[in-house]
Design goal:
This protein is mostly helical and 341 residues long. It has a domain at 22-141 and 170-254. Helix content is 53%, strand content 1%. Helix 3 (38-62) packs antiparallel against helix 4 (72-90), helix 4 (72-90) packs across helix 12 and helix 9 packs across helix 12 (221-243). The relative contact order is 0.15.
């Protein structure tokens, strides 16, 4: 046999789609990262509610002054924390009891934030069922932003101008996200069953009645409106910055055969620039919750192996990504009782 024949290695069988995601999911589950930490959530929820109460008390004590606008920043952060609780309740990460999870979601989303918990869960679960699938994931449907070349080509008028500049306008548009989430929730009411609609509408109405009473009884009308606008702008920006990075770097299946490696944020004339930017986008966690539960603290750390050339974070990169280093991670076997969601 020739030297080439002696050194030839059998070609590895192609990996099945989703196999890497399943292995990742099993590894995460075996390390106990999906086990519910109800005690931590109870403490976190109590601390968040106490902080909300403290900010509201400070708002009332300040009275009718422009200095009250300084409280919009901590209040926006606490609102985002409240949204995280509602999000995790929708994933049943807090409690295995679905009734308890829905109650937590209703209180935090509908009552405290004025967002429709039913709308969020409907959209978010469809997203997790088919993440980044162009025809099935509502998060990559045509809206204020578009995500593919074909979607961009169909835009006309102001929408086309918006698409051509959406990479630059992304952060300013996040300032409107807090208001948009509430509008979407109200529009979803007519799609809910009658009994569920009544509960959602009652809590949403209570939220707006309580906040309007608080704002306009403490501030003059002009200051109250400015306070509400600034608060919703900061809330939308913070919430968008928390979720958007987790939705970059994942392949976008297209029924027409086109394969997108990330969610682009530029129009047709910026396609080349967008592709150059894609290497700097953060990879998305495949088929895992947007926000994983807190890491358990009962497992000691151990060093992780340094990736070999060609096995770095970018699949097509010839060498391991510069800056890779030995980190410390949790060992396997920390727990395997929670199912992979």
């Amino acid at each position: 046999p020739t030297k080439a024949a002696r050194t030839a290695r059998p070609r590895a069988a192609p990996r099945r789609p989703g196999a890497t995601s399943r292995r990742c999911c099993v590894q995460v589950r075996d390390q106990g990262l999906l086990e519910r930490r109800t005690d931590r959530y109870v403490l976190g929820i109590a601390a968040n509610l106490a902080a909300l109460g403290a900010v509201v008390a400070g708002f009332v004590l300040l009275g009718d002054t422009w200095w009250s606008l300084l409280l919009t920043l901590p209040l926006a952060v606490l609102w985002t924390r409240t949204a995280f609780v509602a999000h995790d309740a929708g994933h049943t990460q807090i409690s295995a009891d679905r009734r308890a999870s829905r109650l937590i979601g209703l209180v935090h989303a509908n009552l405290l934030l004025g967002m429709n918990e039913a709308w969020w869960n409907d959209k978010h679960m469809r997203h997790h069922a088919n993440p980044n699938h162009i025809d099935k994931d509502p998060d990559v449907g045509v809206g204020a932003l578009v995500w593919t070349q074909k979607q961009a080509e169909r835009r006309e008028g102001f929408a086309r101008w918006l698409t051509r500049n959406q990479a630059r306008l992304f952060f300013p548009m996040l300032l409107l996200e807090g208001i948009a989430l509430k509008i979407y929730g109200f529009r979803f009411l007519r799609r809910q069953p009658l009994r569920e609609r009544a509960v959602s509408a009652l809590l949403l109405t209570a939220h707006f009645a309580l906040w309007a009473t608080l704002l306009f009884s403490t501030l003059s009308p002009g200051k109250a409106i400015v306070f509400a606008l600034v608060l919703h702008a900061l809330f939308g920006l913070h919430l968008g910055l928390a979720f958007a990075p987790n939705h970059k770097g994942m392949e976008m299946p297209d029924p027409d055969g086109e394969r997108w490696g990330h969610r682009p944020t530029a129009g047709p004339d910026l396609a080349q620039r967008t592709r150059r930017r894609s290497d700097r986008l953060v990879p998305r966690r495949a088929e895992l919750p947007d926000r994983a539960p807190p890491l358990p603290e009962h497992a000691p750390p151990q060093p992780a192996a340094r990736p070999a050339p060609g096995q770095g974070a970018l699949r097509r990169h010839r060498h391991a990504v510069h800056g890779d280093r030995t980190d410390r991670v949790l060992p396997s076997g920390a727990g395997a009782h929670a199912r992979c969601r």
